[in-house]
Specification:
alpha+beta; six-stranded antiparallel β-sheet; four-stranded antiparallel β-sheet; 4 helices; globular
Length: 208
């Protein structure tokens, strides 16, 4: 197990350029901005801001209105198209999505407004003998800041790019945002078995 963790820390991060389309970016951003004030978005309380600066569909059981604790969001069709593409790309199946109420259909979106940082953390493991893989799309970057750090290394991506890493094993955070443009994040989460991680993070996996 110690050797496996070491391998994850060395190789458990990938960027795939232009994984989604410009039209998908626009649809995803519009949905988040149109809905982030709805009661099924929560304050994740992952920074020390003196007011709410981050709004997320994560953790349904923490919604302030208990009428929405069991409410399951239906995202736009394009969101599920991207998820299906990830199933095919990673060679995994729908049974491996992160379950409700932590994620909704295995998917989370977050709108972050200045300063809107996210403190360093690791994510839970949801199923025995797996690791938690996050496939992130920052579909709208802030003008300044909002940089993802994984194990102390900054990763800057364009708005169509996929940033994926083993969130249960690698410490990650996001720096403070500057400016009026909110940072919009979409996370597709999966519980991944060791043999799958070894395959996914092989240096030649994406060229095969």
């Amino acid at each position: 197990a110690g050797v496996f963790i070491c391998i994850i820390k060395m190789f458990g991060i990938k960027i795939v350029k232009n994984f989604i389309t410009e039209d998908e970016v626009k649809i995803l951003n519009k949905w988040t901005l149109d809905h982030y004030k709805q009661p099924y978005f929560i304050n994740p309380v992952m920074n020390f801001d003196d007011h709410q600066t981050r709004f997320t569909t994560r953790h349904a059981s923490l919604r302030s209105n208990e009428d929405y604790w069991d409410y399951k969001i239906k995202y736009p069709k394009e969101v599920y198209d991207i998820q299906k593409k990830l199933f095919e790309f990673l060679k995994i199946d729908k049974g491996q999505i992160i379950p409700f109420p932590s994620f909704n259909d295995g998917i989370v979106t977050t709108a972050a407004f200045s300063p809107g940082s996210c403190l360093e953390h690791v994510d839970p493991i949801y199923c025995n003998n797996t690791c938690t893989l996050h496939c992130n799309f920052i579909t709208q970057n802030s003008k300044h800041g909002g940089i993802t750090y994984v194990e102390g290394v900054p990763y800057e991506t364009d708005e169509r790019d996929l940033l994926m890493y083993v969130a249960s094993d690698l410490k990650h955070r996001v720096t403070a945002i500057e400016g009026k443009t909110p940072r919009i994040l979409w996370v597709f989460g999966f519980s991944i078995f060791e043999h799958q991680l070894n395959r996914i993070f092989k240096p030649d996996f994406f060229s095969s």
